[in-house]
């Protein structure tokens, strides 16, 4: 197994174990063993379990952001663009249930340092903040503090994806998908 393959095996195994057993109950030895690498190899790539967790969190957040960014359609209608992004984000969750379960468990967890969460929100998902600022400048979105708005939207995303992961048949139901977007949108619009 080459070095990149070993590193990916460690990340894939950590993802599975962190979701199934939890961060604190998962040892680095169990990750290395299930990944088929020596513990020293794990520590070569990741100096600590916390470093491994942070890398995994940022890598999955980047994958998510890349998928959402690729779906952006600048139609000139902010609500239409937001709806498209919302549905793309939910679709990503449904297409990547293990990674979304990881987000469900760790996005707001003290297991992820606030600096790492802020990096994910402000750097990796910075385009979302830019869209919110654009909406505020156009007078379409409420003039709430941007960081609070972003965290609130993130919480709504986690709630909607939790609902759809628990009720996958509802994801295909237009009434439910439209309602999930309306809840998200109405929390931001200027009222």
Structure in words:
Helix 1 packs across helix 6 and helix 4 (49-70) crosses helix 5 (78-95). Helices cover 76% and strands 0% of the residues. It folds into 2 domains: 1-47, Homeodomain-like (Arc Repressor Mutant, subunit A), CATH 1.10.10.60; 50-186, Orthogonal Bundle (Tetracycline Repressor, domain 2), CATH 1.10.357. It has 191 residues and is an all-alpha fold. The model has no long low-confidence stretch (mean pLDDT 92).
Oligomer: single chain
What is the 3D form?
elongated
Strand content is: under 5%
CATH architecture of the largest domain: Orthogonal Bundle
Give a quick summary of the entry:
The chain is mainly α. It is built from eleven helices and no strands.
Topology readout:
Elements: H1 3-21, H2 28-35, H3 39-45, H4 49-70, H5 78-95, H6 97-106, H7 114-124, H8 126-137, H9 146-166, H10 168-171, H11 174-186
Helix pairs in contact: 1-2, 1-6, 4-5, 4-7, 5-9, 5-11, 6-9, 7-8, 8-9
């Amino acid at each position: 197994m080459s070095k990149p393959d070993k590193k990916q095996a460690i990340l894939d195994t950590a993802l599975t174990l962190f979701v199934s057993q939890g961060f604190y109950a998962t040892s680095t030895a169990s990750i290395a063993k299930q990944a088929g690498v020596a513990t020293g190899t794990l520590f070569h790539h990741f100096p600590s379990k916390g470093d491994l967790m942070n890398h995994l969190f940022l890598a999955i957040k980047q994958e998510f952001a890349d998928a959402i960014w690729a779906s952006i359609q600048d139609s000139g209608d902010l609500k239409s663009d937001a709806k498209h992004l919302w549905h793309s984000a939910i679709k990503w969750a449904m297409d990547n249930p293990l990674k979304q379960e990881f987000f469900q468990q760790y996005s707001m967890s003290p297991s992820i340092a606030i600096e790492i969460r802020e990096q994910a929100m402000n750097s990796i998902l910075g385009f979302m903040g830019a869209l919110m600022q654009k909406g505020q400048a156009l007078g379409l979105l409420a003039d709430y503090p941007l960081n609070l708005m972003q965290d609130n939207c993130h919480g709504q995303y986690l709630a909607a994806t939790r609902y759809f992961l628990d009720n996958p048949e509802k994801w295909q139901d237009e009434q439910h998908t439209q309602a999930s977007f309306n809840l998200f949108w109405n929390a931001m619009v200027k009222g």
